[in-house]
Amino acid sequence: MNKKIYGLFKANKAAFAGFIIFAALTSCSKSNEEITAETQANALNIESIQKGQLNGQAITYIKKDGKNFFQGDIVLTDQQLAGDNSANKGGATLSRWPGGKIYYTVASNMGSINANKITSAVSEYNTKTNVQWIPRTNQTNYVQFIFGSSSGADGWANIGYQGGKQTISLDQYISVGSVIHEMGHAVGLYHEHARKDRDQYVSIQWNNIQDGQAYNFNIYNSGTDIGVFNINSVMMYWPNSYSKNGQPTIKRADNTNFTYNRNGFTTGDINTINAMYP
Ligand SMILES: [Zn+2]
């Protein structure tokens, strides 16, 4: 099994093995109300599915280890979910990094291999887009790359400019392409498959999605879709994301399979970032 195929979502898949999440999903309208709470043996590793509001849209997300995971690997702050429009919010049209400059630090335990991946990904941004990732000296607002785990191939990131310190987490076996993907979230990009117009281009294979994970394939209406839908985007889910049976969960609209890209930016990705950061 190619590790990259399950990459970012492997952790969620494993975490949900044995979980049973059913009908309550649609019966709850209260903001942030907990609708299921599954406890594992380790009380520190409690996960639950939550309903909340993001930029005026009702969303479903996972509460895990005190963090709010949206669409698998996007971590929302409590402030974002509280609907505080006066604060910084993530999104394609909001919370841009001032001047397109993103200052960053790398945790001391990251290890040289992942540090090199960050260097490669930074070079991709700095040479191909208007966004510049710059090592932090004393800036207040910045991204800290932290080391997630020594066994995984996953990552997660806060979305958009938050103000203060925000985080990108990288596991040991994450690919450079997935580092670029996580940095894309920090820049303010959501997932390509969540665009409002996605059903013109892809067919979600709902019957192949793991029980309780369908909400990860919901359209996100509150963002701004820039450019044309790009199935080769580095921000696209891959074909087998959250598959319960090895069959694709996303196909092209004509029901043919597509090959996902985590090699780096497509022209569409670059154009999108540059539209956000002219
Ligand atoms: Zn992602």
From TrEMBL:
Active site annotation, chain numbering: E182
Database matches in CDD domains: ZnMc_astacin_like
Domain of life: Bacteria
Pfam short name (any one): Astacin
The entry's keywords: Hydrolase, Metal-binding, Metalloprotease, Protease, Zinc
Matches recorded under SUPFAM superfamilies: Metalloproteases ('zincins'), catalytic domain (SSF55486)
GO biological process: proteolysis
Cofactor binding remark: Binds 1 zinc ion per subunit.
InterPro entries cross-referenced by the UniProt entry: Astacin-like_dom, MetalloPept_cat_dom_sf, Peptidase_M12A, Peptidase_Metallo
Residues at which Zn(2+) binds: H181, H185, H191
Peptidase M12A domain: residues covered: 86-278
The protein's required cofactors: Zn(2+)
SMART domains: ZnMc
GO molecular function: metalloendopeptidase activity; zinc ion binding
KW Repressor (keyword) present: no
Gene3D superfamilies: Collagenase (Catalytic Domain)
Listed name of the protein: Peptidase M12A domain-containing protein
Species, as recorded: Chryseobacterium lactis
